Amino acid sequence: MPALPRRPTGPLLTDLSGEEGVREAYAAHGAEIYRLAVRGLGDAGAAQDAVQEVFLRAWRARDRYDASRASLRTWLFEIARNVVVDAQRARGARPWLRGLVDHRDLEADAPGAGATADGWEALTRRILLEEALRRLGDDHRRALEETYLADRPYPEVAAELGVPESTLRSRVFYGLKALRVVMEEMEVTL
Amino acid sequence: MTARDPEHEKLRTDLGVYVLGALPPDEAAAVEAHLAGCAGCRAERDDLLPLADALGDLRRADGGPTRFEPTPDGLDDLVLARFTQERNRERRTAWARRTGLAAVAGAAAATALVVGLAVTRDDPAPAADPVPVEPVSVRVTDRTVAADAELVNHTWGVEVLLTGRGFVEGGAYEVAVVGTDGRRYPAGAFVGTGDREMLCHLNSAVLRPDADGFEVRDGRGRVVVSSRFS
Which residue has the higher pLDDT, A133 or B130? Predict the structure, then answer.
Protein backbone atom coordinates (compact mmCIF):
# COMPACT_ATOMS: atom_id res chain seq x y z
CA MET A 1 0.00 0.00 0.00
CA PRO A 2 1.50 3.37 -0.95
CA ALA A 3 2.37 5.79 1.83
CA LEU A 4 -0.45 8.20 2.36
CA PRO A 5 0.29 11.83 3.13
CA ARG A 6 -0.18 12.79 6.71
CA ARG A 7 -2.97 15.19 7.24
CA PRO A 8 -2.84 18.17 9.54
CA THR A 9 -3.84 17.29 13.06
CA GLY A 10 -3.75 20.69 14.68
CA PRO A 11 -6.70 22.64 16.05
CA LEU A 12 -9.64 22.50 13.69
CA LEU A 13 -11.68 25.35 12.46
CA THR A 14 -15.07 24.69 13.97
CA ASP A 15 -16.97 27.60 12.48
CA LEU A 16 -19.39 25.77 10.22
CA SER A 17 -21.31 28.85 9.15
CA GLY A 18 -19.48 29.27 5.86
CA GLU A 19 -18.19 27.19 2.98
CA GLU A 20 -14.63 27.29 4.28
CA GLY A 21 -15.66 25.78 7.60
CA VAL A 22 -17.66 23.00 5.93
CA ARG A 23 -14.77 22.37 3.56
CA GLU A 24 -12.31 22.12 6.45
CA ALA A 25 -14.58 19.91 8.52
CA TYR A 26 -14.95 17.57 5.55
CA ALA A 27 -11.19 17.54 4.93
CA ALA A 28 -10.59 16.59 8.56
CA HIS A 29 -13.37 14.07 9.07
CA GLY A 30 -15.05 13.29 5.75
CA ALA A 31 -13.05 10.13 5.15
CA GLU A 32 -13.76 8.77 8.62
CA ILE A 33 -17.46 9.52 8.30
CA TYR A 34 -17.57 7.91 4.88
CA ARG A 35 -16.04 4.72 6.27
CA LEU A 36 -18.48 4.76 9.17
CA ALA A 37 -21.35 5.13 6.73
CA VAL A 38 -20.06 2.37 4.44
CA ARG A 39 -19.76 -0.02 7.36
CA GLY A 40 -23.08 1.08 8.79
CA LEU A 41 -25.04 0.90 5.55
CA GLY A 42 -23.02 -1.62 3.57
CA ASP A 43 -23.51 0.36 0.38
CA ALA A 44 -21.11 2.88 -1.13
CA GLY A 45 -23.83 4.87 -2.87
CA ALA A 46 -25.96 5.16 0.24
CA ALA A 47 -22.84 6.05 2.23
CA GLN A 48 -22.12 8.98 -0.08
CA ASP A 49 -25.64 10.26 0.42
CA ALA A 50 -25.20 9.85 4.16
CA VAL A 51 -21.96 11.84 4.21
CA GLN A 52 -23.66 14.73 2.41
CA GLU A 53 -26.53 14.58 4.86
CA VAL A 54 -24.16 14.59 7.85
CA PHE A 55 -22.48 17.82 6.80
CA LEU A 56 -25.79 19.39 5.85
CA ARG A 57 -27.26 18.58 9.27
CA ALA A 58 -24.09 19.80 10.95
CA TRP A 59 -24.36 23.08 9.10
CA ARG A 60 -28.04 23.45 9.98
CA ALA A 61 -27.30 22.70 13.65
CA ARG A 62 -24.08 24.72 13.78
CA ASP A 63 -25.43 27.03 16.50
CA ARG A 64 -25.87 24.05 18.80
CA TYR A 65 -22.29 22.88 18.53
CA ASP A 66 -20.34 23.55 21.72
CA ALA A 67 -16.61 22.93 21.31
CA SER A 68 -16.14 22.99 25.07
CA ARG A 69 -18.40 19.94 25.45
CA ALA A 70 -17.33 17.72 22.57
CA SER A 71 -14.77 17.64 19.81
CA LEU A 72 -15.98 18.34 16.32
CA ARG A 73 -15.31 14.69 15.47
CA THR A 74 -17.44 13.43 18.34
CA TRP A 75 -20.25 15.76 17.36
CA LEU A 76 -20.10 14.82 13.68
CA PHE A 77 -19.99 11.11 14.54
CA GLU A 78 -23.12 11.51 16.62
CA ILE A 79 -24.85 13.18 13.69
CA ALA A 80 -23.56 10.38 11.46
CA ARG A 81 -25.11 7.83 13.74
CA ASN A 82 -28.50 9.52 13.44
CA VAL A 83 -28.14 9.74 9.66
CA VAL A 84 -27.26 6.05 9.39
CA VAL A 85 -30.21 5.10 11.59
CA ASP A 86 -32.54 7.24 9.48
CA ALA A 87 -31.19 5.72 6.27
CA GLN A 88 -31.68 2.22 7.64
CA ARG A 89 -35.24 3.03 8.60
CA ALA A 90 -35.94 4.63 5.25
CA ARG A 91 -34.99 1.61 3.25
CA GLY A 92 -36.33 -0.91 5.71
CA ALA A 93 -34.78 -4.18 6.76
CA ARG A 94 -32.73 -5.74 3.98
CA PRO A 95 -31.86 -9.37 4.65
CA TRP A 96 -28.62 -9.23 2.67
CA LEU A 97 -27.33 -6.53 5.00
CA ARG A 98 -27.23 -8.93 7.89
CA GLY A 99 -24.27 -10.73 6.38
CA LEU A 100 -22.08 -7.68 6.67
CA VAL A 101 -19.62 -7.74 9.52
CA ASP A 102 -20.32 -4.30 10.85
CA HIS A 103 -23.99 -4.27 10.12
CA ARG A 104 -24.65 -6.88 12.73
CA ASP A 105 -23.17 -4.52 15.31
CA LEU A 106 -25.53 -1.82 14.21
CA GLU A 107 -28.68 -3.79 14.04
CA ALA A 108 -30.90 -3.52 17.06
CA ASP A 109 -33.20 -6.31 18.09
CA ALA A 110 -36.15 -4.83 16.26
CA PRO A 111 -35.56 -4.65 12.51
CA GLY A 112 -35.11 -1.11 11.36
CA ALA A 113 -34.67 0.23 14.87
CA GLY A 114 -31.15 1.28 13.95
CA ALA A 115 -27.74 1.43 15.54
CA THR A 116 -27.33 0.32 19.12
CA ALA A 117 -25.23 2.58 21.29
CA ASP A 118 -22.71 -0.18 22.01
CA GLY A 119 -22.49 -1.29 18.41
CA TRP A 120 -21.96 2.23 17.18
CA GLU A 121 -19.34 2.95 19.82
CA ALA A 122 -17.41 -0.20 18.90
CA LEU A 123 -17.60 0.72 15.23
CA THR A 124 -16.36 4.28 15.82
CA ARG A 125 -13.48 2.95 17.92
CA ARG A 126 -12.43 0.68 15.09
CA ILE A 127 -12.74 3.39 12.46
CA LEU A 128 -10.62 5.76 14.56
CA LEU A 129 -7.97 3.12 15.17
CA GLU A 130 -7.86 2.38 11.44
CA GLU A 131 -7.49 6.06 10.74
CA ALA A 132 -4.65 6.27 13.28
CA LEU A 133 -2.95 3.27 11.62
CA ARG A 134 -3.34 4.97 8.26
CA ARG A 135 -1.45 7.96 9.59
CA LEU A 136 1.54 5.89 10.71
CA GLY A 137 4.67 5.62 8.63
CA ASP A 138 4.64 2.72 6.20
CA ASP A 139 7.19 0.63 8.13
CA HIS A 140 5.34 0.91 11.42
CA ARG A 141 1.93 0.27 9.91
CA ARG A 142 3.03 -2.75 7.94
CA ALA A 143 4.80 -4.23 10.95
CA LEU A 144 1.63 -4.02 13.05
CA GLU A 145 -0.71 -5.11 10.29
CA GLU A 146 1.26 -8.07 9.06
CA THR A 147 2.33 -9.48 12.42
CA TYR A 148 -0.67 -8.77 14.58
CA LEU A 149 -3.75 -8.01 12.51
CA ALA A 150 -2.94 -10.65 9.90
CA ASP A 151 -1.51 -12.92 12.63
CA ARG A 152 1.53 -14.00 10.63
CA PRO A 153 4.78 -15.42 12.10
CA TYR A 154 7.50 -12.83 12.72
CA PRO A 155 10.23 -14.71 10.81
CA GLU A 156 7.98 -14.95 7.75
CA VAL A 157 7.09 -11.25 7.80
CA ALA A 158 10.70 -10.22 8.47
CA ALA A 159 11.86 -12.27 5.49
CA GLU A 160 9.20 -10.76 3.28
CA LEU A 161 10.19 -7.25 4.33
CA GLY A 162 13.89 -8.09 3.97
CA VAL A 163 14.83 -7.08 7.51
CA PRO A 164 16.14 -8.99 10.56
CA GLU A 165 13.48 -10.15 12.99
CA SER A 166 14.97 -7.84 15.62
CA THR A 167 14.23 -4.90 13.32
CA LEU A 168 10.67 -6.09 12.85
CA ARG A 169 10.22 -6.35 16.61
CA SER A 170 11.61 -2.87 17.00
CA ARG A 171 9.15 -1.58 14.38
CA VAL A 172 6.28 -3.19 16.29
CA PHE A 173 7.42 -1.48 19.51
CA TYR A 174 7.95 1.96 17.97
CA GLY A 175 4.86 1.50 15.82
CA LEU A 176 2.76 1.07 18.97
CA LYS A 177 4.37 4.15 20.52
CA ALA A 178 3.74 6.15 17.34
CA LEU A 179 0.17 4.91 17.29
CA ARG A 180 -0.30 6.27 20.78
CA VAL A 181 1.05 9.66 19.74
CA VAL A 182 -1.19 9.76 16.66
CA MET A 183 -4.26 8.90 18.70
CA GLU A 184 -3.40 11.64 21.17
CA GLU A 185 -3.08 14.05 18.26
CA MET A 186 -6.49 12.91 17.07
CA GLU A 187 -7.76 13.53 20.61
CA VAL A 188 -8.92 9.94 20.85
CA THR A 189 -8.98 8.43 24.32
CA LEU A 190 -8.29 4.75 24.58
CA MET B 1 21.23 -2.62 33.77
CA THR B 2 21.06 0.93 32.39
CA ALA B 3 18.94 2.53 29.70
CA ARG B 4 21.88 2.37 27.30
CA ASP B 5 22.58 -1.26 28.02
CA PRO B 6 21.99 -3.27 24.78
CA GLU B 7 20.39 -6.06 26.78
CA HIS B 8 18.03 -3.60 28.42
CA GLU B 9 17.22 -2.03 25.07
CA LYS B 10 16.40 -5.42 23.59
CA LEU B 11 14.07 -6.27 26.48
CA ARG B 12 12.47 -2.84 26.19
CA THR B 13 11.78 -3.09 22.46
CA ASP B 14 10.45 -6.62 22.96
CA LEU B 15 7.69 -5.06 25.07
CA GLY B 16 5.77 -4.36 21.84
CA VAL B 17 5.70 -8.03 20.84
CA TYR B 18 5.12 -8.92 24.51
CA VAL B 19 1.96 -6.84 24.97
CA LEU B 20 0.65 -8.22 21.68
CA GLY B 21 1.09 -11.71 23.09
CA ALA B 22 3.47 -12.94 20.39
CA LEU B 23 6.69 -13.39 22.36
CA PRO B 24 7.85 -17.03 22.73
CA PRO B 25 7.31 -18.30 26.31
CA ASP B 26 11.00 -18.29 27.30
CA GLU B 27 11.49 -14.74 26.09
CA ALA B 28 8.22 -13.64 27.73
CA ALA B 29 9.52 -15.05 31.02
CA ALA B 30 12.72 -13.05 30.62
CA VAL B 31 10.73 -9.87 29.95
CA GLU B 32 8.55 -10.49 33.01
CA ALA B 33 11.59 -11.03 35.19
CA HIS B 34 12.99 -7.76 33.90
CA LEU B 35 9.71 -5.92 34.46
CA ALA B 36 9.71 -6.93 38.11
CA GLY B 37 12.79 -4.82 38.66
CA CYS B 38 12.47 -2.00 36.13
CA ALA B 39 9.92 0.73 36.83
CA GLY B 40 10.67 2.45 33.51
CA CYS B 41 9.77 -0.62 31.49
CA ARG B 42 6.66 -1.23 33.61
CA ALA B 43 5.53 2.29 32.71
CA GLU B 44 6.24 1.58 29.02
CA ARG B 45 4.22 -1.64 29.21
CA ASP B 46 1.30 0.14 30.89
CA ASP B 47 1.32 2.75 28.09
CA LEU B 48 1.22 0.06 25.43
CA LEU B 49 -1.45 -2.21 26.92
CA PRO B 50 -4.49 -0.07 25.92
CA LEU B 51 -3.22 -0.08 22.33
CA ALA B 52 -2.92 -3.85 22.40
CA ASP B 53 -6.52 -4.05 23.63
CA ALA B 54 -7.73 -1.74 20.87
CA LEU B 55 -5.84 -3.67 18.18
CA GLY B 56 -7.29 -6.88 19.62
CA ASP B 57 -10.80 -5.51 19.06
CA LEU B 58 -9.88 -4.61 15.51
CA ARG B 59 -8.41 -8.02 14.81
CA ARG B 60 -11.46 -9.80 16.17
CA ALA B 61 -13.76 -7.63 14.07
CA ASP B 62 -11.90 -7.64 10.79
CA GLY B 63 -9.63 -10.66 11.02
CA GLY B 64 -6.88 -9.28 8.81
CA PRO B 65 -5.16 -6.18 7.54
CA THR B 66 -7.29 -3.10 7.97
CA ARG B 67 -9.61 -2.00 5.25
CA PHE B 68 -9.27 1.55 4.08
CA GLU B 69 -12.28 2.17 1.94
CA PRO B 70 -11.02 5.02 -0.24
CA THR B 71 -13.22 8.08 -0.18
CA PRO B 72 -14.83 8.41 -3.61
CA ASP B 73 -13.47 11.14 -5.84
CA GLY B 74 -15.80 14.09 -5.98
CA LEU B 75 -17.55 13.40 -2.68
CA ASP B 76 -16.18 16.68 -1.34
CA ASP B 77 -17.78 18.47 -4.31
CA LEU B 78 -21.11 16.78 -3.61
CA VAL B 79 -20.94 17.79 0.06
CA LEU B 80 -20.18 21.40 -0.83
CA ALA B 81 -22.78 21.48 -3.60
CA ARG B 82 -25.50 20.35 -1.21
CA PHE B 83 -24.33 22.83 1.38
CA THR B 84 -24.35 25.64 -1.21
CA GLN B 85 -27.77 24.64 -2.46
CA GLU B 86 -29.20 24.57 1.06
CA ARG B 87 -27.56 27.85 2.01
CA ASN B 88 -28.90 29.53 -1.13
CA ARG B 89 -32.35 28.19 -0.44
CA GLU B 90 -32.16 29.54 3.10
CA ARG B 91 -31.06 32.91 1.81
CA ARG B 92 -33.89 33.03 -0.71
CA THR B 93 -36.36 32.07 1.98
CA ALA B 94 -34.95 34.71 4.34
CA TRP B 95 -35.13 37.31 1.60
CA ALA B 96 -38.71 36.37 0.75
CA ARG B 97 -39.61 36.55 4.41
CA ARG B 98 -38.07 40.00 4.77
CA THR B 99 -39.87 41.36 1.77
CA GLY B 100 -43.17 39.80 2.74
CA LEU B 101 -43.23 37.71 -0.41
CA ALA B 102 -43.66 34.50 1.43
CA ALA B 103 -46.65 35.75 3.38
CA VAL B 104 -48.44 37.03 0.27
CA ALA B 105 -47.57 34.06 -1.86
CA GLY B 106 -48.20 31.73 1.03
CA ALA B 107 -51.74 33.04 1.52
CA ALA B 108 -52.46 32.88 -2.20
CA ALA B 109 -51.19 29.38 -2.54
CA ALA B 110 -52.13 27.94 0.81
CA THR B 111 -53.91 24.97 -0.64
CA ALA B 112 -51.10 24.20 -3.05
CA LEU B 113 -48.60 24.40 -0.20
CA VAL B 114 -50.49 21.92 1.97
CA VAL B 115 -50.54 19.44 -0.88
CA GLY B 116 -47.05 20.27 -2.05
CA LEU B 117 -45.28 20.06 1.28
CA ALA B 118 -46.67 16.63 1.89
CA VAL B 119 -44.92 15.18 -1.10
CA THR B 120 -41.95 17.40 -1.92
CA ARG B 121 -38.67 18.35 -0.38
CA ASP B 122 -36.62 21.51 -0.59
CA ASP B 123 -39.26 23.56 -2.33
CA PRO B 124 -38.34 27.22 -2.44
CA ALA B 125 -40.97 29.78 -1.50
CA PRO B 126 -43.41 30.19 -4.33
CA ALA B 127 -42.75 33.21 -6.51
CA ALA B 128 -45.27 36.00 -6.82
CA ASP B 129 -45.19 36.00 -10.64
CA PRO B 130 -45.23 33.01 -12.94
CA VAL B 131 -41.72 32.06 -13.92
CA PRO B 132 -41.05 31.39 -17.62
CA VAL B 133 -40.32 27.69 -17.99
CA GLU B 134 -38.98 25.65 -20.88
CA PRO B 135 -40.44 22.16 -21.28
CA VAL B 136 -37.88 19.48 -22.14
CA SER B 137 -38.34 15.88 -23.19
CA VAL B 138 -37.22 13.15 -20.82
CA ARG B 139 -36.17 9.56 -21.37
CA VAL B 140 -37.14 7.15 -18.62
CA THR B 141 -35.13 3.94 -18.35
CA ASP B 142 -36.93 2.56 -15.29
CA ARG B 143 -40.40 1.37 -16.28
CA THR B 144 -41.82 2.04 -12.83
CA VAL B 145 -40.96 5.72 -13.10
CA ALA B 146 -42.99 8.43 -14.85
CA ALA B 147 -41.40 11.85 -15.10
CA ASP B 148 -41.65 15.24 -16.80
CA ALA B 149 -39.28 18.16 -16.60
CA GLU B 150 -39.11 21.86 -17.28
CA LEU B 151 -36.22 24.27 -17.05
CA VAL B 152 -35.95 27.69 -15.51
CA ASN B 153 -33.24 29.88 -16.96
CA HIS B 154 -31.83 31.74 -13.95
CA THR B 155 -28.98 34.24 -14.06
CA TRP B 156 -27.03 31.94 -11.74
CA GLY B 157 -27.67 28.71 -13.60
CA VAL B 158 -30.32 26.41 -14.91
CA GLU B 159 -32.95 24.96 -12.60
CA VAL B 160 -34.62 21.64 -13.39
CA LEU B 161 -38.24 21.31 -12.28
CA LEU B 162 -38.71 17.57 -12.10
CA THR B 163 -42.19 16.14 -11.67
CA GLY B 164 -42.57 12.44 -11.29
CA ARG B 165 -43.76 9.37 -9.50
CA GLY B 166 -42.54 5.84 -9.13
CA PHE B 167 -39.15 6.68 -7.65
CA VAL B 168 -38.54 4.06 -4.96
CA GLU B 169 -39.93 5.30 -1.68
CA GLY B 170 -37.07 6.31 0.60
CA GLY B 171 -34.47 5.70 -2.10
CA ALA B 172 -31.88 8.40 -2.67
CA TYR B 173 -31.48 9.86 -6.14
CA GLU B 174 -28.86 12.25 -7.40
CA VAL B 175 -29.32 14.68 -10.23
CA ALA B 176 -26.60 16.10 -12.43
CA VAL B 177 -26.81 18.63 -15.20
CA VAL B 178 -24.72 17.56 -18.18
CA GLY B 179 -22.71 20.45 -19.60
CA THR B 180 -21.97 21.02 -23.25
CA ASP B 181 -18.43 20.03 -22.29
CA GLY B 182 -19.74 16.57 -21.42
CA ARG B 183 -19.06 16.95 -17.70
CA ARG B 184 -21.68 16.27 -15.07
CA TYR B 185 -22.39 19.02 -12.57
CA PRO B 186 -24.24 18.30 -9.30
CA ALA B 187 -27.79 19.64 -9.26
CA GLY B 188 -28.95 18.17 -5.97
CA ALA B 189 -30.59 15.05 -4.69
CA PHE B 190 -33.99 13.84 -3.59
CA VAL B 191 -35.67 10.96 -1.87
CA GLY B 192 -38.18 8.91 -3.82
CA THR B 193 -41.84 9.14 -2.80
CA GLY B 194 -43.15 5.93 -4.34
CA ASP B 195 -46.58 6.30 -5.93
CA ARG B 196 -47.07 9.84 -4.70
CA GLU B 197 -46.28 12.55 -7.18
CA MET B 198 -43.38 14.79 -6.31
CA LEU B 199 -42.03 18.07 -7.61
CA CYS B 200 -38.34 18.76 -7.12
CA HIS B 201 -36.50 22.00 -7.78
CA LEU B 202 -32.95 21.04 -8.72
CA ASN B 203 -30.49 23.86 -9.03
CA SER B 204 -27.23 23.73 -10.90
CA ALA B 205 -24.37 26.13 -11.36
CA VAL B 206 -24.46 25.65 -15.14
CA LEU B 207 -25.83 28.48 -17.27
CA ARG B 208 -28.58 27.50 -19.72
CA PRO B 209 -26.42 27.92 -22.87
CA ASP B 210 -23.81 25.65 -21.29
CA ALA B 211 -26.31 22.96 -20.29
CA ASP B 212 -26.92 20.04 -22.60
CA GLY B 213 -29.12 17.80 -20.48
CA PHE B 214 -29.61 16.22 -17.08
CA GLU B 215 -29.49 12.78 -15.51
CA VAL B 216 -31.14 11.26 -12.47
CA ARG B 217 -29.21 8.37 -10.94
CA ASP B 218 -30.38 5.94 -8.29
CA GLY B 219 -28.37 4.86 -5.25
CA ARG B 220 -26.46 2.36 -7.36
CA GLY B 221 -25.45 4.98 -9.87
CA ARG B 222 -27.81 3.80 -12.62
CA VAL B 223 -29.40 6.45 -14.80
CA VAL B 224 -33.19 6.20 -14.39
CA VAL B 225 -34.21 9.46 -16.06
CA SER B 226 -32.26 11.52 -18.56
CA SER B 227 -32.88 14.43 -20.85
CA ARG B 228 -31.12 16.10 -23.77
CA PHE B 229 -31.94 19.77 -24.12
CA SER B 230 -32.62 21.06 -27.61
Answer: A133
